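#help-structures

NK: newbie question. if I give both the sequence and a SMILES, will the prediction place the ligand too? trying with nicotinamide-adenine-dinucleotide
OV: yes, paste both and it writes out the complex. here, I ran yours:
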Amino acid sequence: MGNKIRLGIVGCGSFVQAFIPLFKAHPYVEWIAVTDLIKERREGHAKKFGIERVYDSYEEMLKSDVNAIAVFVQRELHGPITIAALKSGKNVYSAVPVASSVEEIVKIASLVKETRLTFSMGETGHYRPCSIFCRNMVKSGELGDFVYGEAQYNHDMRHFYEHYRRSGGPDWKKVAGIPPMYYPTHSTAMVLSSACTYAERVSAFGFVEKQDADIFGTGMNYWDNPFSNTTAVMKLANGGIVRTSENRRIAWYGPMSYISQFHGTKASYEFSISNHSLVKLDGMKGVHKDINKELNPPEMELKRGDEDFADGIVNNKWSGTMAPVQYRDAERLPEEYKGLHDGHGGTHKFMADDFCKAAYTGKLSPTNIWVAARYNIPGLVAHESAMKDGESMKVPDLGEPPADWPLLEV
Ligand SMILES: NC(=O)c1ccc[n+]([C@@H]2O[C@H](COP(=O)([O-])OP(=O)(O)OC[C@H]3O[C@@H](n4cnc5c(N)ncnc54)[C@H](O)[C@@H]3O)[C@@H](O)[C@H]2O)c1
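OV: that's the protein plus ligand as structure tokens.
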């Protein structure tokens, strides 16, 4: 028996609303507390979700009897809160990314190693249908040796304006101009987790923004970042190569995160808009297998053939629920999750469950700090490379988790 989780949520914005019901319902969670800098938000969430414990600040929360915290503050603010929480002896669930500097990530890993507390990053890309499919192909040997993969997270700034305004106040543009590669994990996690390896070197180029040059522009944001889009090419430890793109100015709405190509020596996966294909060679002949029914949610496949089907796809209409390729993994989810809302390609329940089980049992989460570092650090270095016009740079690697720390079996 482990210790039940008394979870303090830091940040009462929009995304956390999808997770409070999942944390609340989890059998390993005893109770939940909330805090936000903005009084109306912390009180509003407490009322909406029936939460009794409300703290004025996360510092107060860390002094209380919570034994875990969940970081849901804006993307550029995670590192210091996670470090403070670990120093206070609390387990940590963090929305992506881990942090905005390599130094902070190294610090978090060393605190986790020293304290043996849980750190679990909620990375949707780890559990997307395409990632599970490609990873299974690599693990089973069906793909052969991994050769080349491509993944992207396309989220145009036009869909972000309101969001940044709401939490950013008058200076919202200075925050909105964060380098795209400081939020790299939706693309890196997909191809790297699937290829079962990590990046050793990276070379990247950025697109210097013209339209929103008062957001992405030299002197315009806290990072002096001119790029709205950045593409990185990475050399991997297993000899493979990946291309990842983080795009914030692109005529695109959905799908947002996807692997477009994933090639091995024995099989290849390819995706476009709504079509997933598996291709193999039979002698000299290509053999195509339609895997849409496995990788798309059933309610979406039922609509294939409708006149407005493609419009629905490019507007993220069926982006929230699970696809059959995820059903086997879903068997480990608690009964209490049945009927609860999911999101981001049917990934939310996996992420919440990983954290709760890891913190309760003391085992390592699948997206522990060593895994999360390998998703996050290549992006931070990619931005540096892009600022140096594509200079090839070494990616620091924090290595594997301690060998005596068992991994949660999920
Ligand atoms: N697919 C995904 O994985 C995904 C999707 C959406 C958001 N996210 C991540 O989730 C996080 C939250 O996103 P969001 O859209 O809810 O943001 P948001 O701006 O709506 O909410 C963030 C909240 O944190 C609060 N906050 C900031 N600093 C604080 C502090 N020191 N103490 C207490 N509260 C503080 C803000 O007041 C705000 O209410 C971000 O890091 C984002 O990157 C991930």
